[in-house]
Design goal:
By secondary structure, this protein is α/β, with parallel strands linked by helices. 58% of the residues lie in helices and 9% in strands. The chain has a four-stranded parallel β-sheet. The protein has a three-stranded antiparallel β-sheet with strand order 3-7-6, covered by helices on one side. Strand 6 and strand 7 form a beta hairpin. Helix 5 crosses helix 7 and helix 7 crosses helix 10. The longest helix is centred in the middle third of the chain and has 84 residues. The radius of gyration is 48 Å and the shape is elongated.
């Protein structure tokens, strides 16, 4: 300690004075020499005799290599020793002096690290063949294939193993420290500043242990201590060893921690569908908490992104949190039921990829629990009914038994009287029979009245439903009529306003690289129309572009000198139309471009479709639409309950109501059953018969996704031409 230093040197001086033959040798690092200056007057020679020990030079290293081998009668040739030392003295430089040095991976340094020299020579000596005896000459051809990198790799890995055993830190954390703190992204030695307790995140006692193993060294600069690898020659072996170790770990942990490989794929693709959720996410977070400091940055980012996405998913669907709680500790009180369960099941069926197995297990358990509850309720009700029936039966039986006993006693007492009044009983029986007939007639009449009343109520309900439906249709018709009138009045104003926007903001089209020139020709009518609209103020406000394969939106804008600030229509107009499928111009490019610009896309299978589209747009914008004030109700009828109901209880009531309540200047027409053909519908949709409002109710067609008709005909309407269920559907219907 500095407070005891002066007393220490007084004791040394007394010892030297008392023992004339005594000498003292101080061995210390060069950066501590200056701290001895205040005490040099206390010593006889004032520490004037000093010897600076440097690292071995290349020439000294050759002597170190050749000397012991010579004494063992197994000498190195000078060429072999020189090449070995040259390999160990290689250093990284920003610009090597010669092409040969550049090819070798850097320049040649002045010194050799003695520990590395010792490690390499020891492993090289042990690798010599057992047949090499005395007077065996070790030539360069014999050892030129010796892997010096592997020797240094072994030195690095064995040092890590010792430090792991001594410190208790994980090997993963140590390797990360070497990668992040001591090796730059360019593959050169870096510097790590020692802090009060840690050096670049590693505890200082562990750093000292690494220094004692000569894997790293320290240097004091400006009063601070810095650490670096002991030599440039260690960089490549460490980088290679870390890479091999990570690959091996990834393979071994694929089963135990599958999210590690998923994190790598997520980082490469950016696909959020790979994010962890549910139980796998909980397990990954638990592992992260149990292994602090051992996560790669990209792995930490993956788990943080997964956690945020999971929290957002739970906020949207609160039942997911309940499912997680139930899965951890099953409890019937947590299970969903009723409308919340129905909503959760509907969401899970609509989003199967978003539901984890344990969450689906929770929903299934909730569904089974609710079914069991329903069964229990029905069993309880059934038991109550059966119990009531049994009690009633017993009461009736008791009453009948009692009545029978009383009747028998009365018969015994009045047997004589009954014989006298036999005639009276006959008369009574006849009267009872007549009364029974009358009662049956009254009951039948009452039953008939009940049926009539029920029919009357059902008819009234049906009329109410029909009246309500007709009222809704009338309101919809009125709204449609008003909308059509507004559309006709505002058409010219809307078109002129659109022209104004294009003339101020510009318009451009983007074709795929190598697009068929015939597509450009097919769109020429639309392109010329847009040119006239956009160039009213500046001819540069109309642009045609070509997309380069693999190009991002940023690349595209940079290529056309469009900055990220205020846009200039002469560089890239605001309104852009992409022409091509997503394989030739990706959706990702469109979405990136759409952040700043108004972007649309068209793609058709044939050139004729492009031409039809262009012509239709131009006609729609230059010739305002004016349709006759006519409502057409179109209802095919097939042998199926669906069209039975739609025709009788929807289409016909709507038509009748519209005929009675239509405005004077509107026409109402119907095409029901045999008149509702495909040919008639085609005339209504494209021709002089096109109504302002077409009301259709009928079947639609669904094709499987693997069939050729799915793209073109899925959702098509079936007209009266279709024979009905069980018959093949063709384009003729």
């Amino acid at each position: 300690h500095w407070e005891q230093a002066e007393g220490f040197f007084h004791q040394v001086r007394e010892a030297l004075d008392g023992l004339p033959g005594l000498g003292v040798l101080f061995v210390l690092r060069e950066d501590y020499v200056a701290e001895l200056d205040p005490y040099t007057p206390l010593l006889p020679s004032a520490l004037q005799a000093r010897f600076r020990m440097t690292l071995p030079t290349r020439q000294q290293a050759m002597q170190i290599v050749m000397g012991p081998a010579q004494q063992a009668h197994c000498p190195f040739t000078e060429e072999a020793a020189q090449n070995l030392v040259t390999n160990l003295s290689r250093i990284k430089t920003f610009r090597s002096a010669t092409p040969q040095a550049e090819e070798a991976g850097g320049g040649i340094g002045q010194y050799v690290e003695p520990v590395q020299l010792q490690v390499v020579c020891q492993q090289l000596w042990e690798s010599l063949p057992e047949t090499a005896g005395e007077d065996h000459l070790i030539e360069w051809d014999e050892i030129k294939h010796y892997d010096v990198d592997q020797a240094l790799t072994t030195f690095y890995e064995s040092t890590l193993a010792n430090v792991v055993q001594q410190s208790g830190l994980s090997e993963r954390r140590l390797r990360q420290w070497f990668r992040d703190a001591l090796i730059t992204p360019e593959g050169r030695r870096g510097l790590a500043l020692q802090g009060a307790d840690e050096t670049a995140g590693l505890p200082n006692p562990v750093v000292t242990t690494l220094e004692n193993h000569h894997l790293i060294r320290s240097d004091t600069r400006g009063g601070s201590r810095w650490y670096e690898l002991s030599h440039d020659r260690l960089v490549e072996p460490i980088v290679r060893s870390n890479r091999v170790w990570r690959e091996k770990q990834a393979t071994e942990q694929a089963q135990e921690k599958p999210w590690l490989s998923v994190a790598q794929r997520w980082r490469e693709s950016g696909d959020n569908a790979l994010l962890c959720r549910g139980k796998p996410l909980e397990e990954a977070l638990a592992w992260q908490a149990a292994h602090p400091g051992e996560m790669e940055p990209e792995e930490t980012e993956f788990l943080e992104t997964s956690y945020n996405a999971e929290q957002n998913r739970i906020r949207q669907m609160p039942w997911l949190a309940v499912a997680r709680q139930w899965y951890a500790a099953p409890n019937d009180t947590l299970l969903y039921r009723g409308k919340p369960l129905e909503a959760a099941l509907a969401w899970a069926e609509a989003n199967p990829a978003e539901v984890e197995p344990e969450e689906m297990e929770f929903l299934e358990a909730s569904r089974q629990f609710e079914r069991a509850q329903v069964r229990r309720r029905w069993l309880s009700i059934s038991a109550s009914i059966v119990g009531a029936i049994v009690i009633l039966a017993m009461a009736i039986l008791t009453f009948l038994t009692y009545s029978s006993q009383q009747e028998a006693e009365a018969q015994r007492q009045t047997a004589e009287a009954q014989r006298e009044v036999a005639e009276a009983q006959k008369i009574t029986a006849e009267i009872a029979s007549t009364a029974a007939v009358e009662q049956r007639g009254i009951a039948e009449a009452a039953s008939t009245r009940a049926v009539e009343q029920q029919a009357t109520a059902e008819a009234a309900s049906t009329r109410a439903v029909e009246q309500q439906a007709a009222a809704e249709v009338a309101r919809a018709t009125a709204v449609a009529a008003e909308a059509i009138a507004l559309r006709q009045r505002d058409e010219i104003e809307r078109l002129s306003e659109r022209h104004k926007y294009l003339s101020e903001m510009g318009w451009g089209v983007i074709f795929a690289d190598g697009a068929d020139p015939a597509i450009r020709q097919a769109l020429s009518e639309l392109l010329e129309h847009r040119r006239q609209q956009a160039t009213q103020r500046d001819s540069g406000y109309y642009q045609e572009f070509s997309y380069s394969p693999g190009e991002t939106a940023s690349d595209f804008l940079s290529r056309h000198r469009a900055g990220i600030g205020q846009f200039n229509p002469t560089e890239v107009p605001y309104y852009l139309l992409i022409v091509g499928d997503p394989e030739s111009i990706p959706y990702e490019f469109q979405y990136q471009l759409d952040v700043k610009y108004a972007v649309g896309r068209i793609h058709f299978e044939t050139v004729e479709e492009y031409a039809n589209y262009a012509h239709s747009v131009v006609i729609a914008e230059t010739q305002p639409i004016s349709l006759a004030r006519k409502v057409t109700v179109f209802g095919p009828h097939h042998p199926s309950p669906a069209t039975d109901i739609s025709l009788e209880h929807l289409m016909k009531p709507v038509y009748e109501y519209l005929v009675k309540n239509k405005p004077d200047d509107w026409q109402i027409e119907e095409f029901f059953e045999s008149k509702a053909t495909k040919t008639q519908l085609a005339h209504l949709l494209d021709g002089d018969q096109t109504p302002a409002l077409l009301f259709f109710a009928g079947h639609g067609v669904e094709f499987h996704i693997d069939t050729s008709e799915q793209l073109s005909y899925n959702g098509a309407l079936l007209c009266q031409d279709w024979p009905g269920p069980g018959q093949k559907v063709s384009r003729d219907f």
